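All the exercises in this workshop are built on plain-text protein records. A record pairs a protein's sequence with a compact description of its fold. Read left to right, the backbone structure tokens trace the chain's path through space. Once this layout is familiar, the rest of the handout is easier to follow. Here is such a record, shown just as it appears in the course material:
>
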Amino acid sequence: MTPEMVVTIGREAVLTMLLVSAPMLVSGLVIGLIISILQAITQVHEMTLTFIPKIAVVAISLVIFLPWIMNLVVEFTVRLYGIIPTL
């Protein structure tokens, strides 16, 4: 196993992790921004007000994107198993 191969596998693992987590992070960010704007408009600055909507939106986005996420993880795993003979 060469250092270049290790770096390539590491880079693919990090990219896969970013792609897998992106839908939930982006949806949480968007709903947090929307709620923050609503709080600024209404002058209601309750810190706990954002938790339930964020949890709900992140859970919904996880359910929506789960087939795509599973496909990414399975493809990455199959690629890793495929390069075992070259090690």
In short: The CA atoms of residues 25 and 58 lie 8 Å apart.
